[in-house]
Amino acid sequence: IEEVGSDAAGVAVRVDRVSLELETGRASIFGLRVGNLSGFKGESAFTLGEITIDIDLESLREQNPIVLDEIRIESPVVFYELNEARQSNLDVLKKNVSSAWDGDSTGDATGDSGPETRLRIRKLRFSGGRVEADTRAIGGNQLEAKLATASLSDVGGSSGATGGEVGEIVVTELARQTALAIGRGQIESLIEDQIGEERMKAVEGLLNLFGR
């Protein structure tokens, strides 16, 4: 995870620990941290508190592709940052992952030969997350907001996706949910400034529409 992930992302990727339950086909990754990129101030781009993977053991026989019944990503924290060039760290990270795997359909990001394992993910779910945004470099401010629970279905389709493609999908979805959360947070702040904290409760139902 750390070696291939760091090569693909172009920044340090670290995990606290991994737990494997081979008989039940379950794997868990705890404390995954993706470092920030050059030109950005924060220590990390995002962290994932816990990733739980349920594997369809029958699919391991042929591996064409390997089927993951579900990937659950708990407590993601995105440290979103815009630099003076109006680039976001998530956009740059996504480009790094995409370019690292471009044209490399026969091997992995480390250059090993042979076909790469492909994955079909029946359900990919994010929950319990938040974003910490910093746009002060372009005259903005700092903002914290909750990330909405989000689910993706049939990632990779019948032919499956490479590990790099799955990584790009995860970063893309985190970026999408971050944009929604930041937009919602800015609207909340604006309304609260205009109508005050007490009246804010009256529009909470409307604001919840922006969580998806």
Verbal overview:
It contains five helices and nine strands, in the order αβββββαββββααα. The protein is of the alpha+beta class. Strands 1, 2, 3, 4, 5, 6, 7, 8 and 9 form a nine-stranded mixed β-sheet that branches. Helix 2 runs antiparallel to helix 3. It is globular. The relative contact order is 0.14. Mean pLDDT is 84; it is low at 105-110.
Q: In DSSP terms, counting alpha (H) and pi (I) runs of 4 or more, how many helices?
A: 5
Order of helices and strands: HEEEEEHEEEEHHH
Share of helical residues: 25-40%
**SS strand fraction:** 25-35%
Largest sheet: 9 strands, mixed
Structural class, please? alpha+beta
Residue windows where pLDDT falls under 50 for at least 5 positions: 105-110
Distance between the termini: 30 Å
- CA-based gyration radius: 19 Å
The residue-averaged pLDDT reads 84
Secondary structure tally: strands: 9
Shape: globular
Summarize it.
The protein is α+β, with helices and mostly antiparallel strands. It has helices spanning 2-9, 89-101, 163-195, 197-200, 204-207; strands at residues 13-14, 17-21, 26-35, 44-55, 66-81, 119-127, 130-134, 142-146, 150-155. Helix 2 runs antiparallel to helix 3.
Which properties best describe this structure?
single chain; 212 residues; alpha+beta; 29% helix; 5 helices; nine-stranded mixed sheet
Strand and helix layout:
Blueprint: H1 2-9, E1 13-14, E2 17-21, E3 26-35, E4 44-55, E5 66-81, H2 89-101, E6 119-127, E7 130-134, E8 142-146, E9 150-155, H3 163-195, H4 197-200, H5 204-207
Parallel strand pairs: 5-6, 5-7
Antiparallel strand pairs: 1-3, 2-3, 3-4, 4-5, 6-9, 7-8
Helix pairs in contact: 2-3
